[in-house]
Specification:
With 192 residues, this protein is α/β, with parallel strands linked by helices. The protein has two domains: 99 residues, Rossmann fold (3-Layer(aba) Sandwich), CATH 3.40.50.170; 73 residues, Rossmann fold. Helix content is 35%, strand content 23%. The protein has six helices and seven strands; from the N terminus they run βαβαβαβαβαββα. Strands 3-2-1-4-5-6-7 form a seven-stranded mixed β-sheet, with helices on one face. The radius of gyration is 17 Å and the shape is globular.
Length: 192
């Protein structure tokens, strides 16, 4: 009798532009037995992304492509994703906007984490905006990626209290801690 093992994990690529702290939390999450994903590719639009070091640390393939010529870069990425059998993409501090065409090709299979309680404060400088507007709460959101910036269907959110002493930097640190928990939880929710 053949013993059936669990379903194979979904091959996933993580797109980064910076330190890769969310990437690291996703890699750790992918290593647990109940995780629905495996991280098989790290992609960055810059060789300066500190998060690329996790490629060597965890033995994950990496690819760096400049986005100066967007169409060419995206064709190259799509070919690579196909070759590697990637079926899911997590954007984690990826500071480039993907084209409608790219998003359409991966429709419903790209998620992003954003440092605000969407639909509030799409785009950049979310912590500065929250503090300037004297908000009591901020937080983070994991959502599906659509052609409209930070506008896709929300998967999960986590609120973070803003104290009177918070600066954009201290608020960013508090929210980032929650992002590391929220992203894996949102992925579990998608695949369960």
């Amino acid at each position: 009798m053949v013993k059936l093992t669990g379903l194979k994990k979904i091959k996933t690529a993580v797109f980064i532009s910076g330190t890769g702290s969310n990437l690291k939390s996703l890699i750790k999450f992918s290593k647990i037995k109940k995780s629905p994903i495996s991280i098989d590719l790290i992609f960055s639009n810059t060789s300066k992304a500190k998060g690329l070091r996790y490629s060597n640390q965890f033995n994950i393939k990496k690819k760096i492509l400049s986005f100066k010529r967007l169409k060419i870069a995206e064709i190259e990425i799509l070919n690579l994703l196909k070759k590697e059998g990637i079926r899911f993409i997590c954007l984690a501090g990826f500071m480039k906007i993907l084209s409608k065409n790219f998003i359409r090709k991966f429709n419903g299979k790209i998620v992003n984490i954003h440092p605000s309680l969407l639909p509030k404060y799409k785009g950049l400088n979310t912590h500065i905006k929250a503090i300037q507007n004297k908000d009591k709460l901020s937080g983070c959101t994991v959502h599906f990626v659509t052609a409209k910036l930070d506008s896709g269907k929300i998967i999960l959110q986590k609120e973070v209290k803003i104290s009177k002493k918070d600066t954009p930097t201290s608020l960013a640190k508090k929210i980032l801690k929650q992002e590391h928990k929220l992203y894996p939880a949102a992925i579990k929710k998608i695949f369960n």
